Fold these 2 entries.
Entry 1:
Amino acid sequence: MTERKITGKHVLFGFTAAFGIIIAVNLLLAYSAIKTFPGLEVANSYVASQTFNERKAAQESLGWTVEAHHHDGRLTLSITDDTGQPVAVKMLDATVGRATHVADDVAPDFQFDGSAYVADVPLGDGNWNIRMTAIAFDGTEFQQRVVLIKD
């Protein structure tokens, strides 16, 4: 039987193949991450940070609590004040979507029924979030990402 020896060419080929696989997998994962990235939250984070504390204090002074539920195709977004009473807002802009990508995002047409904002929205299985912006009647902006609870 002939004895096989590992030469420098074999070692070079092994290292090249191993690192080639590592680089290919890293490129594939980077491409997948960029492809599914939902986008920037703000155009310039430094500028946004300059008024963060003031906006946070104004939002907290409203005392609002937000909850979202989905049952049988009906989405309910409840906004209550610090006494537990329902809140009607001047303007509500909300996007329902998944945390990982924007392909399934929808902007429901919410209607206030006297106790909550409701909309008919068919949603698939899995985790869903609501990214909402509401304007109070005094002009205060309220922004929140709400985890959607599916009943």
Entry 2:
Amino acid sequence: MSFFIPDFDDSVVVRAADAELIGGDAPVQNHLLVDSAQVGGALSTMRVTLAKGANGARPHHHRKSAEMFYVLDGTAQLLAGEQVVTAERGDVVVVPPGQQHAFSAAPGEIADMLVIITPGVERFEYFRHLERIRYGKVPPESLLEVQELYDSYFGTSAVWESSRNG
């Protein structure tokens, strides 16, 4: 077990109106709230809003960070290792470092989640990169080149695919 002490001196306050929004007109919206550098590496946090049945993140893992999903509204499906969890408003799912996970809105449902990664990884630029892919400015394969930088390593999951494809 390691012990991490974040290094920052002032409280961080992010107003909803000031949060950067990625994917404003898309089925997946990422509200970028706090990035790692703002809080001395303690965490990274965003709000993810998924339209009815929308796919969020495909299977991946983080080598150095745990990830927590708190469902603010709606119903989400989350891959946590080898199980698919249906989480509803008020539910929390936490995946440890190294465990494959994914998330989506449940079929026919919306999902609105607070996502926290700890210790933090600079995530804002990762989501900007995803937006560049969405608009065709860089190819999807470019994510493979930055997996280590953003501590996001992509994988596959038969259990996830079967849950999403019925």
